Amino acid sequence: MTTFQAYRIDKNEGQQQAGIETLSFKDLPEGDVLIKVHYSSVNFKDGIVSQPDNPMVKEYPIVPGIDLAGEVVESDHDSFKKGDRVIATSYEIGVNHHGGFSEYARMPAEWVVPLPDGLTLEESMIYGTAGFTAGLSIHRLEQNGLKPEDGPVLVTGASGGVGSMAVAMLAKRGYHVEASTGSAEHTEFLKRLGAESVISREDVYDGNLKPVKSARWASAVDPVGGEQLASVLSQLQYNGAAAVSGLTGGTNIPTQVYPFILRGISLIGIDSVQFPMDERKKVWHRLANDLKTKELFDDIKVVIGLEELPETLNQILAGQTRGRTIVKFG
Ligand SMILES: NC(=O)c1ccc[n+]([C@@H]2O[C@H](COP(=O)([O-])OP(=O)(O)OC[C@H]3O[C@@H](n4cnc5c(N)ncnc54)[C@H](OP(=O)(O)O)[C@@H]3O)[C@@H](O)[C@H]2O)c1
Question: Which CATH number is 133-269 given?
Answer without folding.
Answer: 3.40.50.720
